[in-house]
Write a structure and sequence with these properties.
This protein is α+β, with helices and mostly antiparallel strands. The protein has five helices and seven strands; from the N terminus they run ββββαββααβαα. The longest helix has 8 residues.
């Protein structure tokens, strides 16, 4: 299973598997803090519920250390409220390089290939045809 590093100013602060998907733009899941997370914990807890965590300079990398281009990363540290199982959650959005569907090909195909059939017949009209 994939594993991604969450970095603050190039310091590894947590790991995530990004197990929740919302193609074609967002992914998220639980994060597991590293020892260096403790240095930022108070600031992250204080910003839960605030949309902007830019001051943390967060980035995401593959397990091999390759950076992923994303538009935003948001960390929610609330195990004191929700418990350890769901208290450490994160969301990543705006996958730029590689694209979401390149990085999460299987999940993207599953979501984007679901087709619903209309309950009533579809009428197709050719507007180029002129009856004289």
């Amino acid at each position: 299973m994939r594993k991604f590093g969450i970095y603050s100013n190039d310091q590894l602060i947590a790991w995530t598997r990004l197990e929740h998907f919302e193609p074609p733009a967002h992914a998220g899941g639980k994060f597991i803090p590293t020892g260096d997370y403790a240095k930022l914990k108070d600031e992250i807890v204080a910003t839960c519920g605030v949309a902007n965590q830019d001051f943390l300079n967060l980035s995401l990398k593959t397990e091999q250390g390759e950076p992923l281009g994303v538009l935003h990363i948001y960390l929610m540290d609330q195990p004191h409220i929700y418990g350890e199982d769901i208290g450490y959650e994160m969301v990543v959005g705006g996958f730029v390089n590689p694209s979401y569907c390149t990085l999460f090909k299987d999940e993207c195909e599953k979501k984007l290939t679901k087709v619903t059939t209309p309950k009533s017949p579809v009428l197709i009209v050719n507007l180029d045809r002129r009856d004289e």
